[in-house]
Protein: ferroxidase
Amino acid sequence: MTQTAFIQDMESRREQARKHMMNGAVTEDFTQDRETIIKLLNEALATELICVLRYKTHYYTANGKGTKVAAAEFWEHAQEEQEHADQLAERIAQLGGTPNMNPETLTDNAHSDYHCGGDTLEMLKEDLIAERIAISSYRELIAYIGDKDPTTRRILEDLLAQEEEHADDLVDIIEHIAE
Ligand SMILES: [Fe+2]
Ligand SMILES: [Fe+2]
Structure:
């Protein structure tokens, strides 16, 4: 781009910024993919909310071998999944979308399943499966977003790192119980 073209571009950018001021963080160059990103973020939000419910249920119903150490982990993960849900909801709202927390559609939109019942070891395994699903979903989502939306990508990268830690922690506890 020549210097003149860049300046012309800057002028139209200033004009657009002023014209649609009340769109806040959403600028004109970012309308095309925004709807898709909001939809995908809502699916991630549903997944996180289901994870909160699953971990809380596991915390309150843990029984059998390894319960003490597992219950502490279930509680910690429940809090962190709730933080993930809040980060996603905040970003959805920032992008002009509506965070979908409708209980009727949560399980349909979520990538991983709710689980209740069995002993602590079964719960740990179900949670590990759910974490692994979350990990591969976040990886795919990050790859899709690419350079389209750096802020959302950064948020998702942080969530992915924490889901990887969760999966790692669960493997450790399962190994510990199996000893
Ligand atoms: Fe999470
Ligand atoms: Fe997690």
The mean pLDDT is 92.
